């Protein structure tokens, strides 16, 4: 800092005409180190330093300046002043913040409840809450259901025989039956326009077989079934697998229908893995799909799963390799076989045309 001050002082002295300290001549250009004395020449400077004693005076001035600069450098730096408290934004309004906080807390609590108890996904896009919409009984996957083109719903065979067979009306919405094939086609086309997967699958089946007065067209059937599959229908996926025409699509759409919860597709997928047809043989994978179909009450899946447990096939890592594990496995096999027997009893008195897999 002292050097800056000296430079500034020298600059100031150079800019002002002052006389020589020794001889008094104007415009002295030489400035002493102490910035006090000025000289017109080296001769005057020598006279002042040696004869007049200015050299000692200059040394004292320089030492005093250095001591002052050192004292100033060692002085502690004062702490910065604390920042002022600044409030940004409008002042809180009465009760508004409390209301917003309460609403946010309610939304957060509702989200947490939804995460703890998620809505169960429908097993199939054709199934309404996994029940018949008339009697509200759980679907029996071993029996066929009747599709009504008026409301695009399926109704179990028992409700169909009780209502539709007697009155000729829809068992659900009580709409009169179609007078001819043209009216039925019109209803299905209206459902297709509404992006209804059930109507798409039914119209595709008519195109594939050439029913209800439609000209047989595999191309149209495939387009409808692909769209129905995109909308999430497992029934459309399994129908697409059957008419796809190549093995890769047959396997892919069968597995897709099985993933969407279609019991028949799960049973057939398990059968493919058991026998190694179109897919690599994998009894563990077969056991997984067979169990999913059995849990939905599929007759063949329950019986086949009991046989697999008896033969210890597909059970890798499911039971302990001990006598207790073997007993547990046989008990589970017995449970599935008994379940198959109980399902078989429900066939008594049922028209064969209502059983899945039987010819109509």
Automatic annotation (TrEMBL):
Ranges of residues in domain RING-type: 132-174
MYND-type domain sequence ranges: 20-58
Keyword Protein biosynthesis appears in the UniProt entry: no
Domain of life per record: Eukaryota
InterPro entries cross-referenced by the UniProt entry: Sel1-like (IPR006597), Sel1_AlgK (IPR050767), TPR-like_helical_dom_sf (IPR011990), Znf_MYND (IPR002893), Znf_RING (IPR001841), Znf_RING/FYVE/PHD (IPR013083)
Keywords from the named record: Metal-binding, Zinc, Zinc-finger
PANTHER family, per the entry: ERAD-ASSOCIATED E3 UBIQUITIN-PROTEIN LIGASE COMPONENT HRD3 (PTHR11102:SF160), SEL-1-LIKE PROTEIN (PTHR11102)
Family according to the record: Belongs to the sel-1 family.
Protein's name according to its UniProt entry: Tubulin tyrosine ligase-like protein
Source species of the chain: Aureococcus anophagefferens (Harmful bloom alga)
Gene: TTLL9
């Amino acid at each position: 800092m002292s050097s800056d001050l000296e430079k500034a002082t020298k600059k100031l002295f150079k800019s002002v005409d002052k006389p020589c300290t020794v001889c008094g001549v104007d415009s002295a250009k030489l400035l002493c180190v102490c910035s006090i004395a000025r000289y017109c020449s080296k001769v005057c400077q020598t006279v002042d330093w040696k004869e007049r004693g200015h050299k000692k005076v200059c040394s004292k001035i320089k030492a005093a300046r250095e001591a002052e600069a050192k004292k100033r450098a060692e002085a502690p730096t004062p702490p910065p002043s604390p920042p002022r408290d600044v409030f940004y934004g409008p002042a809180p309004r009465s009760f508004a913040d409390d209301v917003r906080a309460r609403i946010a807390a309610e939304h957060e609590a509702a989200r947490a409840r939804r995460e703890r108890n998620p809505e169960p996904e429908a097993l199939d896009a054709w199934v309404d809450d996994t029940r018949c919409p008339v009697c509200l009984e759980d679907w029996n996957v071993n029996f066929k259901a009747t599709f009504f083109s008026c409301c695009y719903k399926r109704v179990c065979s028992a409700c169909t025989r009780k209502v539709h067979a007697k009155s000729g009306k829809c068992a659900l919405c009580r709409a009169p039956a179609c007078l001819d094939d043209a009216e039925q086609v019109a209803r299905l086309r209206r459902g297709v326009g509404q992006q209804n997967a059930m109507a798409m699958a039914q119209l595709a089946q008519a195109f594939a077989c050439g029913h209800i007065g439609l000209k047989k067209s595999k191309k149209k059937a495939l387009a409808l079934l692909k769209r129905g599959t995109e909308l999430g229908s497992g029934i459309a996926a399994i129908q697409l697998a059957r008419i796809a025409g190549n093995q890769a699509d047959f396997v892919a759409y069968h597995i897709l229908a099985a993933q969407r919860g279609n019991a028949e597709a799960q049973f057939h997928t398990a059968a493919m893995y058991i026998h190694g047809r179109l897919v690599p043989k994998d009894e563990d994978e077969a056991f997984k799909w067979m169990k999913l179909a059995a849990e939905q009450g599929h007759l063949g899946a329950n019986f086949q799963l009991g046989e697999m447990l008896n033969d210890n096939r597909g059970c890798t890592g499911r039971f302990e390799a001990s006598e207790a594990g073997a007993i547990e496995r046989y008990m589970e096999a017995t449970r599935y076989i008994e379940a198959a027997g109980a399902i078989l009893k429900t066939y008594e008195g049922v028209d064969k045309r209502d059983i899945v897999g039987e010819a109509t």
